Amino acid sequence: MWRDSGLAGKAVIVTGGSRGIGRAVVELFASERADVTFWFRHNRAAAEAVLAAAAASGWHVRAEQVDVCDPAACQAAVERVAERCGRIDVLVNNAGVIRDNLLGLLDDDDWRQVLDTNVGGVFNATRAVVPYMVTQRAGKIINLSSVAGEKGGRGQTNYAASKGAINAFTRALAVELAPRRITVNAVAPGVIETEMSREIRERAADEVRAHILLRRFGTPMEVAYTVVFLAATYGDYITGQVLHVDGGFKME
Amino acid sequence: MTDEIRKEEVLAVYPRVAEAMADALGCDVEQLVLDIPLIEGLDAESIDFLDIVFRLERAFKVKIPRGKIVEDARGDLSEADFEHDGYLTDVGLQRLREYLCEVPPDRFRAPMKVGDIPFLFTVETFCRLVVRALRAAPPA
Description:
heterodimer, A: 252 residues, alpha/beta, 8 helices, 15% strand, B: 140 residues, mainly alpha, 3% strand
């Protein structure tokens, strides 16, 4: 028998929640009656669209403009949620950028931006929530990784390095926080129908699909289901794992 | 010395420090006498120290930078003068003894690893940490 997800009323923070997978995660948590705050960097129109959709459904969703690369901004934003909710139950580190190019053509900025956002941002947001989770002796941290963290992909050295780092970060932090009953997991999507992957899907759709056992791209909601599963009571006994949601990418 | 911490300052913060520590360590407040070493006396682990610091920050509305005790003990000594290959130098050990004056002198045994410094921490160590943090930034 399925139990209740246990997410009603939980204080959830989702970084990069205005579009794509992040938005699906926000909406799925909200539909479970969680109290969701999502962060967005600059796309206010997209954030407002999420808020409008949530309001129409009667969900508790708030948006804050926070650059995950700014440690003080992350700290302050987490404190505001803690002040309002009295606790932080779930952090989903979803904010990420992609700047694909062949290594010889990557400039310093392409490298730095990807690492600063995808790894530095996870560090900044996670470090800000950990004090609350440690003292409340409970919490769920879910990091969005990628198939690129484990499979080689041309033009993705920066992105792959950042996602490989997230997988390692996830495992190490799971060990560190287990004594306080905080679970830390990563979800590694394959090619998902989002703005971020549009270029590759348009340029080489058949070639990419040929690498996917299920022969189709995934949807943001299919990734969100896994994230929410981990955050719900269903995922209580899972920690230190990287769960692949990729339709069987390159398994042949 | 003007920055010397007086016993009454320690005793003033002690009840709330003990309460925060009892919550973090899951023990009774009565066990938390001022001179009990946290690791050997109460089975505290490194994550417990973080937990204690987080709780103290919230209880007293102060900021306690991580690694503050070792950093303050080192003071104006260079890192090379304070430690060598992970062990405290003679000068470093002397500095630590002066800084952690609440810890009985016989517990400072050379050679001492920097990583073993937390074994010296007592309840009073954290009371003094709070007193210093309050002096640095008194609550509004």
